[in-house]
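Notes, p. 3: input format for complexes.
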Amino acid sequence: GVAACLQEVTKEYQLGKTTVQALRGISLSIAVGSYTVICGPSGSGKSTALQLLGCLDMPTTGRVEIAGQDVVALSDKARTSFRAQHLGFVFQNFNLVPVLTALENVEYPLQLTVRDAAERRERAQKMLEAVGLGTMLQRRPAELSGGQRQRVAVARAMVKRPKLVLADEPTANLDRRTGAELIEMMRTMQREHQTTFILSSHDPQMIEGADERIRIEDGRVVERVQRSSPALAM
Ligand code: ADP
Ligand code: ADP
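Output follows (234 residues plus adenosine-5'-diphosphate):
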């Protein structure tokens, strides 16, 4: 099945009187349960594509479908709840709440959906154990390394068991080895939970093991490569 797709999508940003064309007619579809990396040079439109696939922004023209839902057709309110229900995000800069512990950061997204506080705690704790942070539940972000913070961010993105997790350059602020460990951990989560992962990166480590690699340049898809199949020029 298809986890998410963009059909003939354009995205323009208005900068004063100037129009920036970030995406120039992109079509792509992401298979359920896959680990897909969107790569390409800086400014090529990776973050924009990820924001649209994550329902954080709307296209200028074209269609965006997530889990079979045409998300452009939803009202703002419906879209917000759709996003909260189906999607998880991991950002380059971790975006953790500094005054909360690791456990509290991961519990936070469950506030609105899980009534029982003990259940919230238990689910957050299990997810932190799954990312290898079972002994660091009470630490605040400042008391964790960059790699550990990003693991907390992955746990937070996954605690609601979303169908789709999006990560914008998740290894950008990590050293090579920590980045490789994070990638391995995300792949394990993807396999065990059958979660679809879409990441943007120009980190070759992250590109290597991808089920599918989509290369964007200047707002267009220039290459799609599926694992163990020859390059398909587009
Ligand atoms: P930047 O955004 O810094 O211009 P790129 O995304 O062009 O960087 O490439 C960064 C690194 O990722 C390079 O080492 C390049 O070889 C590798 N890379 C980029 N795209 C691909 C790809 N489609 N397949 C394999 N490696 C890639
Ligand atoms: P990437 O993630 O590949 O670096 P982006 O999607 O961030 O690329 O940006 C694509 C293009 O859109 C760039 O030219 C960038 O300057 C522009 N852009 C991105 N976000 C905005 C914005 N909020 N306002 C104006 N221009 C933007």
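The chain has a mean pLDDT of 92.
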